[in-house]
Amino acid sequence: MKAYILYEEQDAFNNRFFIKDTVEAAKRKDVDLKLIFVDDLDIDSFLALLDNPLFVWNRTRSTSIASKIQSAGIRIVNKPFVNDLANNKRKTIEFAYSLGIPTVPILDEVRDFPVVIKTVDGHGGDEVALCQNAEQLSHYEKKWHDRATLLQPYIETYATDLRAWIVGDQIIGCVKRVGNDDFRSNYTRGGSIEKYSLSETQTQQILLLQKALQSDYIGIDFLLLPNGDWMLNEIEDPVGARSFYELFNDDLAEILMNHLVDSI
């Protein structure tokens, strides 16, 4: 059986060890998983050459690529709806809110500071700014004038958030991340991580969101408040797993390939 995993070339380099593990896990399931770079790929020509692959795994942020693959009748991981939602922070918040999941509010207007401004399609903690006054806010509004942005109140978390990984309808792990001299808590920006045990309510909310999305593999980030409550902040697709590898002994590639093959 053949399958394909799509990456931009730079992202593939950054994730080369994950890709290697995933290709090897696929072989153990009798799947020939081939890496394809999308940078200069003509997706229509690529699809025309495919002969009923088991799946195509879109590890890019291109919803248009995912949509074309799905329209060709090929199983796409994740579905275009998931990829589109995860790469638009406004859509993410609105969708989760519609399910009754606590979310970071979106501001229609600024009445008090500090506030957080972010582009809706940024990732990795990039294109997020904390503004203490109108002058700072104006600076970022001008900087990102040609980008869709959203405004949110600053929520005091002492730079603490949670990242949960979900494969199919299984939560495979969750970590608490604490930032280092930055209100953002992305692990790649420094700081500390530790395993986190989800409450029953938190587990139910994650599974409710996954069921609504019908996702194959996503990450979900929540702000963790000092009183123990949480607010959904972002959904990640593609999602990184550096902190998962740091803290868990589970074979992530094996888990993913078991899901992708056995769920067909």
Automatic annotation (TrEMBL):
Any one biological process term the GO annotation gives: SOS response
Keyword terms: ATP-binding, Nucleotide-binding
Stretches assigned to the ATP-grasp domain: 66-261
One Pfam match: RimK
GO molecular function: ATP binding; metal ion binding; ribosomal S6-glutamic acid ligase activity
Family matches, as InterPro entries: ATP-grasp, ATP-grasp_RimK-type
GO-annotated cellular components: cytoplasm
Domain of life: Bacteria
PANTHER family, sorted: BETA-CITRYLGLUTAMATE SYNTHASE B-RELATED (PTHR21621:SF0), RIBOSOMAL PROTEIN S6 MODIFICATION PROTEIN (PTHR21621)
Name the UniProt record assigns to this protein: ATP-grasp domain-containing protein
Source organism of the structure: Rummeliibacillus stabekisii
